[in-house]
Amino acid sequence: MKRLRRIPTDVWFEPLIIVVVLIGYIIWYRSTTFSTTEQASLAWSTLKSTILDHIELTLISTAWVVVIAIPLGILLTREKARRVSPFVVNIANIGQAAPAVGLIVLFTFWLGTGFRTAVLGLVVYAILPILQNTIIGLRQVDQRTIEASRGIGYSGLRTLVQVELPLAVPVILNGVRTALVILVGTATLSTFIGAPSLGTLITTGVTLFLPKLLVSGAILVGLLAITIDWLGRLVELVATPRGLA
């Protein structure tokens, strides 16, 4: 019983929401009459492919954001690069402040339509949370801890890897979770430039005035976002050093 009390509320509450909404959707789906177009779009063979395409687009975009944002965030916390940190963060902030549709359209003029363009637009749009959290996480590490590690003979690189990054992990992973949720929702816009995603259900529902298809797309995107956020939370708990959780 004591162990259950130690589990953060969101760890067990989020999957509960997922199950309740999913069961509700299944009951609604089985009791609703769909048109031919809706049946074709929501058939499991088609829907499974659409969901997997959406997940692939989200995960690849997230991987690129992580590869770019975390090393850049580390670099901007080093003494020689701290002066340019506000400038770089402001540039990243412009990427997120701009409308996602506008970014995707601009990149379409440059690279054309397709999966690659969608990934690039999503990366630019979602880079800020991870970059900012990496900088914040590393800067909040106690300077005395860093000095102590250097005092016992650790090099700058070893101090970064074995001291600073482990202490900054909770904040960095929180940024990754935020970026993932942003990307799940924003990935629906990729359908406008020919990259398949759950946005196809939403746009088809709007274009052909098929509210059931529109609602299905919105619910599935929401469920996927909550599921990924929950999985990210589990990773965050596992990766956080003992004493920091």
Taken from the alpha-carbon principal axes, the silhouette is: flat
Weakly predicted, low-confidence segments: none
Distance between the termini: 19 Å
What letter string, H or E per element, gives the SSE order? Answer: HHHHHHHHHHH
Output the structural class: mainly alpha
Write down the Rg: 21 Å
On the 0-100 scale, what is the average pLDDT?
A: 89
Give the proportion of residues in helices. over 70%
- Largest sheet, if any? none
Keywords for this entry:
single chain; 245 residues
Which secondary structure elements does this structure contain, and how are they paired or packed?
Elements: H1 2-6, H2 9-30, H3 36-42, H4 44-76, H5 85-97, H6 100-111, H7 115-139, H8 143-151, H9 156-186, H10 199-207, H11 211-239
Describe the structure.
The protein is mainly alpha-helical and 245 residues long. The chain is 80% helix and 0% strand. The protein has eleven helices and no strands. It has helices at 2-6, 9-30, 36-42, 44-76, 85-97, 100-111, 115-139, 143-151, 156-186, 199-207, 211-239. Helix 2 packs antiparallel against helix 11, helix 5 (85-97) crosses helix 7 and helix 10 (199-207) packs antiparallel against helix 11. The mean pLDDT is 89.
